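Let us work through a complete example step by step.
Step 1: write down the sequence.
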Amino acid sequence: MKKIIVCSILALLFTAGDVTAEGPKPSSLKTKSLSIVIDDFGNNMQGTKEMLELPISLTAAVMPLMETTKKDAELAHRLGHEVIVHMPMEPVRGKRSWLGPGAITIDLSDEEIRKRVEEAIESVPHAVGMNHHMGSKATANERVMRVVLTVCKEKGLYYLDSRTTPKSVIPELAEELGVPLLKNELFFDDVYTTQHIVKQAGAVAKRLKKDEEVIAIGHVGITGTKMVNVLKEYIPVYLNEAKAVPLSELIPEFELVNERLE
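Step 2: predict the structure and record it as tokens.
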């Protein structure tokens, strides 16, 4: 209970300076944009339903080829959220068993990487983009990411660099290949405590004071319930300052090669 009270107090502090006698700014007058991405849908993870029912536009990153991949993607789409593929990729540290089926590892051939990426995209209904699950090793490998991004280009998907490593080769390759690229700015829950999630939620609010666009990533699963509770407190703060938008709205003139939104 104390943790949620802390969230409420912080939310009030952030909001106090923004509410005028006329009330919150109409959404049509807001020029700033916030995209909240939630990773790890697709495996019946804790907080899935509660997260998707939050009163804010989210981008749902759905893991491919999992138990509830199709169900979660369809629900997210039906509730008005954007859907992207949360592609499992090899990390520097961690067990391969944590990645799930169809993961991209650096020992795979170009042909196998292509096959797995194509299968992943096909398994996630309504997907219009991609980011990676883990991936600190794979996303630093130029050969691997060239194949991944080439498939994204062919399928008309944008890419969100989750930035799980400072050695990512994605920005240079995306520019070379002409793949629309976005970059994560912070994780809400890279540390699993409510205290840390509140701290990061506050950091997003501060960024919205000075930045025109902010992208942040959270998760369902281990931190799912905590994320939902903190976002419930901060959504009014965020919406007083900015429009909540899907990632694709941050890409000028983004067009789908196919009608994956339909």
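Step 3: interpret the result. The CA atoms of residues 15 and 54 lie 19 Å apart.
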